[in-house]
Batch of 4 targets.
Target 1
Amino acid sequence: MDKMRNLLLITFFYFSPFLSAKPLLDFKTTETAEKDTSVYDFGFTLRNDGDMLVMNLKGELKRGTLNVWFGGGGWQVVGNYTDQGEFLYKNVVFGPLNNREPVKVRATLINAVGKWHIRFSEVMVSQTMLSFLISGILVIAIVIFLLLRWKAISGSPLKWILIGGGVWAVGVTLKIIFAYIFNKPVLSGLAAVFGETGSVIPGSIYLGLLTGIFEIGATAAFAYFIKDMYKESRNGVSIGLGAGATEALLIGLSQIGNIMIVMSGVEIGRTVLYSVVHASLNTPFFFLLAPAERLLTILCHISSRALVLVSFAKKRYIYFWGGFFLLSAIDMVAGYAHLAGLVKNISLWWIEFAILPFALLSIPIIKWCIKNWRSESEKE
């Protein structure tokens, strides 16, 4: 435990200086009516070959237009933007660029009056991807630690962990198939009825209910046929842990796989790189996001599935609905963030903070389930 804590502290302090973009150009001014045309020329060179360039551009022009052109770093034209009035470009990512050729920037204002601000920053691709790799490794380490710790505490047979993983796989597979067929028409129908903005909440509820129907439904279906799943509390907790651990393990491995895709140089690797860089720009200490998210989500997997299995053990099906709505609520939050477009514009930590109350609630739920777990066989 001490070694794990020390590793986290070393990782935190080593990577934190690299997780924000390094400024290359930061210029702001106010245009007056004294000149019909103003031209500003800038130049800079990236510190490292293959890094990404990030642009932030904001304008509040009462009249006139602003054109920003920039090229270099191995590209003839990197970007070309023309705007008027009020406009904002936040964390627009370009590249990778080389550091052998300087990047030249020209801002041209015609009949412009008002304020504008431009900032270019450099993102170190190697450090960003290394932090993403560390994130995936931490997720896998957390899964292994939780499994070993639970095994030591409960002595639960491994088969219940594996069955929990199977329950998760069946539920998620059915959900993906259903979503592939119906999500687009359902969400389009909601948008037609409520409007694009008004459909966000009902759309989020729909996405959350899919999780409850298929993932919790799969848990109930398995419990109906495998009665030993709810015979003992340790079996039930193992089912939830197995489900959450399987999901987390796949996410951790996918992060490592994405690193390999980026390193391979295939075209899809550029898309992966852009998404990781963009997320890291909006989210401080991005490398800790996935480990934290998985811890919260695993707690919710355990508590929700434990409630479902307690409902079978005690034959009080109100607990089933508690587990159903608890797990559904998690994906309602995630669904809202995606449908509202928040994922691209806010720190992803806000989504985790929204999930945190459900994870905290899961702790006393799990304790209550273990303490009050009484199946018919135990009563005998």
Note: The chain is about 60% helix and 20% strand.
Target 2
Amino acid sequence: MESHLEAAQQIAREAGALLVTFFHRRIGYNLKGDFDLVTEADLASEKLVMERLQARFPSHAIVAEESGGRPSSSEYCWYIDPLDGTTNFAHGFPVFCVSMGLEKSGQMIAGVIYDPLREEMFSAERGAGAWLNNRRLHVSSAASLKEALAATGFPNRKRHKSINVHFYHQMAMATHGVRRAGSAALDLAYVAAGRLDLFWEFGLRPWDMAAGLLLVEEAGGRCTDMLGAPHSLLTSPHLLADNSLVHEETLQLFRDIFAGRYAVPLPDVRTAV
């Protein structure tokens, strides 16, 4: 019998192939609000994923980015981002993925993040580890922020209200650097793979995080909210995920920033020229 994880992998590959076809056509996009993009590819990929899941698991609930959720009494719920990195996709920037996470009775039990351009299938099953294609994953061994490469993201919605610019500057000063690639799901997969040492972001949605949280944890990492409390998929939109070794140091840096204490002051732009 096909497992939940095997089904998700097969569906993600099919959706990924569809996305690649759209990507090479350089299709247009529409706006949700002032800045949030949606493309024909988002809608087509989501339709495919939902149809395949409903055919295999008709009683399961599904929560997806474009269409929301559907009522269900099932203990199983899928969180789907059919195209994470839509803005990248719409501009021809080759960083995007399909993300699918399965929750059972409030606990993530399976997840896949598929990068179709690189044919990289990141997958995890609770208690069975995290994998990239056929290779077992483990988080990095960076023991301090000064050894670390970090990643973050910024919101499309209400971007003028985002406080993350303060965190970005302080983290850039404390680490080897901060990357902002535009796909939270892939950033989490990269933490699990040891390519990144930590990732943080404010204002994420459940479908942004579901699969990635399980990947990081199964690869030996740690996920909490910005203050160090246990992370809840539905009630914690702010996320810190890392290799566990830099977690406490990062939380202390965050506490300082929240309190307005900056290790490195922002430069005075008036003296730059």
Note: The chain has a mean pLDDT of 92.
Target 3
Amino acid sequence: MRRHQVYCISVSRTAAIIIIGDEILSGKIEECNSFYFTRELWDLGVAVRHIAVIPDDVNEISETLRHVSGKYDFVFTSGGIGPTHDDVTIDGVAKAFNVNVTRDPELEKLIRERFDEDSVGSALKMSEVPEGAELIKENGLKFPLIVFRNIFIFPGIPEYLKVKFEAIKERFREEPFHVRTLYVKMFEADIAPLLENTLKRLKDIKIGSYPMVVKDGPRIKITIESKNKAETDKALNFIKENLDPSVIIKIE
């Protein structure tokens, strides 16, 4: 549970993660791509501000992407770019920005080289892109990543998604987040006023408090996060100075 926090959007580039697939919403497949994206982007200094799971529906994909593309710096989609009838992410992107779906010659060549005559017909669907899309071929990617405007279109299979993201992730790197963590023996309600006072004094930080269930009494994990290391350290020191040393378990 997150409480007592303020976001400093102005100092970070922001991202939205859109997971596409009926199989996720029906519980057939466990969703793990949003966790991977969020962790990796945070390490790169990009703040994830929105995560959504939506069905394989062209209209819903279109509406969602039109909204988040205009609100966040980057949009990462996962799923819906295979060869079957329910792979409609490309159609959704095209509809969102009123462009045509076109077959990319380079992707078509790759697919024809990879598939035999019996299966190439269906596989050619994977050569379709929104008109005006860019292909990213960094670091030896065997199959390019499709990018349209600020939307990065990834496959849903986690292993393939990770390979593609690892190949391009350095383009997103910026000033990292600086984090300090404090563990205390207190009830959350007792420390809430101090956390709120800390936020009033130092505006460029985010503080999160996370109650922990243990047998021998209350425990709280407190995280202090900022792109300004000095502010992070100031916030930690202010909290420490206003706590009884006996309630502090450890500091990381």
Note: Confidence is low (pLDDT under 50) at residues 1-10.
Target 4
Amino acid sequence: MNKYQELKIWDKAMNLVEQVYSLMMLLPEEEKFGLVSQVKKSSVSIPSNIAEGAGRNSSKEFIRFLSIANGSTTELETQLILIVRLKFVSEEKVEELLKLCTEIKKMNYSLQKSIERT
């Protein structure tokens, strides 16, 4: 599968990245090379791994990259929770992002199961 741009999960993950980048503008400047950088990397990793997996030659490889994307989604969730616990932003600011992460993880699981059946 090479048409990763047609995957709803990829599009949703791209939207997540855009929202994460907007949120990161609210964090203190001293976090620019720390938490901000890490959060951006984990968010970008999600659609990137979905696309890379879709571009591979086998279903097994696609599933492996979806698994990596799932790990990045969980990593991002943890970082967003940490941002709230460190009181950089309110819980309300990350609530929608966490919901989006949950949706992406569910979609990821469903896509993996669908690929396994083929």
Note: Helices lie at 8-24, 35-54, 59-85, 91-117.
